[in-house]
Design a protein that fits this description.
Blueprint: H1 3-26, H2 40-67, E1 69-70, E2 73-74, H3 75-100, H4 119-146
Antiparallel strand pairs: 1-2
Helix pairs in contact: 1-2, 1-4, 3-4
Length: about 150
């Protein structure tokens, strides 16, 4: 099985577990003399199977990510770098939005508000980070489709 297939299955299992949680809660109580729409025991059994499968899959994915090296870097390291780049870009874009907001002055006597940074220079830096993020993401995706799950 390819790593990408395992990642897709993991996402499906996580969705399924979430759905089972909702279904369990919907069938937790009934009026006296009534029966639940679904048997909670069967739902619990299915939940247990899904969680066990998910645990096994996550362990195998993590092991694969830790042991697969591309150009001297593991997939785990690439994922960490990608996630930190995403956070950096998000924070910098929020800062840019704050820095570039226009403050309307109604008269020349009002206090003038100025940006604390060069918005254009910072936008160029954010664009460079965004390009790096795209390249890393493509590299990770490529590895996911070519790497066999351990």
């Amino acid at each position: 099985m390819k790593l990408a297939t395992a990642l897709s299955e993991r996402a499906d299992l996580q969705r399924r577990i979430s759905e089972l949680s909702v279904r369990l809660n919907n069938n937790a109580k009934v009026q006296e003399g009534e029966k639940p729409a679904e048997d909670p025991k069967e739902l619990l059994k299915e939940l247990d199977e899904c969680i066990n499968r998910l645990e096994n899959l996550i362990a195998r994915i993590n092991k694969t990510n830790n042991e697969t090296v591309s150009e001297g870097v593991t997939i785990t390291d690439l994922i960490a770098h990608r996630d930190c780049l995403k956070e950096r870009i998000r924070i910098m874009r929020d800062f840019l939005n704050s820095s570039s907001e226009r403050i309307q002055r109604y008269s020349k006597t009002e206090i003038k508000i100025l940006s604390t940074i060069s918005v254009a220079d910072l936008r160029k830096q954010v664009d460079a980070y965004a390009k790096e993020l795209r390249e890393i993401d493509e590299r990770i995706q490529g590895l996911n489709w070519t790497t066999e799950l351990i």
